[in-house]
Amino acid sequence: KLARAKKRKAVCSEVALDDQDEIAEFEKAPDAKLRILQVLQEHFLFRHLEQEQRELVTKAMSKVVLKRGEIAFKQGEDGDHFYVVDKGSVACFERRDGSEHETLVHTYNPGGTFGDLSIMYNTPRAATCRATTESRLYALPRKAFKVIVMKTTIEKRLHIKSLLQNVEIFKELKDHEFSKLADAMQEEAYEEGDVICRQGDVGSSFFIIKQGTATCIQADPHGNQQEVAQLTTGDYFGENALLASKPRQGTVKATGKNGTLKLLYVERTTFNRILGSIEDILRRNQSY
């Protein structure tokens, strides 16, 4: 069977945070948000995050205005904030070997960032950072970063689990197996007209629609093509590819009706590696 629609609407559990883990959000002008997001997309700490996570990080950053000569922090102080320079410039100076003499180690201009270690570890500041002109920074506390990453990661896993639990051939999986499978699912985006798989091609991936719509098309022996299904959020296809390398029974294309199509997928080799004998369970429960 090419595709199968969900049997019930997926429900995503809400992740509750303790009061002390609530993070503040700070209003910003649209252009300021865009500038911060562009910086985060290129930064090694944030570029692996999903867009939604980076947007939450941006909301949690507070504005810091420094006058010329004003210090953001001193060398040796405890640090727990990461900074993005939005306007002006900040020079960082280091005192080495106990000397009173400050050595300039770097100057950060708009788009520059500093305080990376403080967002990851509770380490003393390695330098003194001082504004060389009137400057505007945006600061992110380490706690907010960790809460955002933890919260969104848990929410993502719960959402994917809820989608997987609606897949008929997975009905015998245990909760911890759903968690393993949810963590193994990868995400890919497709625009209108993009082909996900073609009829006749040998498949090795199973797909679930996370967002958007797709259409399934089958060709008869004479080459006449006919739409056989419309798929939307929670629907899935390619389940037979988890059992064996067989030709796809139809072509699946992104329609673009509800924006970009986002698919979650897992390769058969990955599936077998993390769940092992579950392949036998799939065979026993496959009724088509």
Can you characterise this structure?
The structure is a single chain. The chain is built from seven helices and 17 strands. With 288 residues, the chain is of the alpha+beta class. The strands form four sheets. A five-stranded antiparallel beta sheet has the order 1-15-12-17-10. A four-stranded antiparallel beta sheet has the order 2-9-4-7. It has a four-stranded antiparallel beta sheet with strand order 3-8-5-6, with no helix packed on it. α1 crosses α2, α4 crosses α5 and α5 runs antiparallel to α6. The relative contact order is 0.15.
**Residue-averaged pLDDT:** 84
Biggest β-sheet: strands ordered side by side in the sheet: 1-15-12-17-10
Counting helices, strands and paired strands, the structural category is: alpha+beta
Biggest sheet, in brief?
5 strands, antiparallel
Share of residues in helices: 25-40%
- Indicate the proportion of strand residues: 25-35%
- Radius of gyration, in Å, reads 25 Å
Shape: elongated
Order of helices and strands: EHHEEEEEEHEEHHEEEEEEEEHH
Count of helices? 7
What's the β-strand tally?
A: 17
The unreliable regions are 1-20
From the N-terminal CA to the C-terminal CA, the straight-line distance is 7 Å
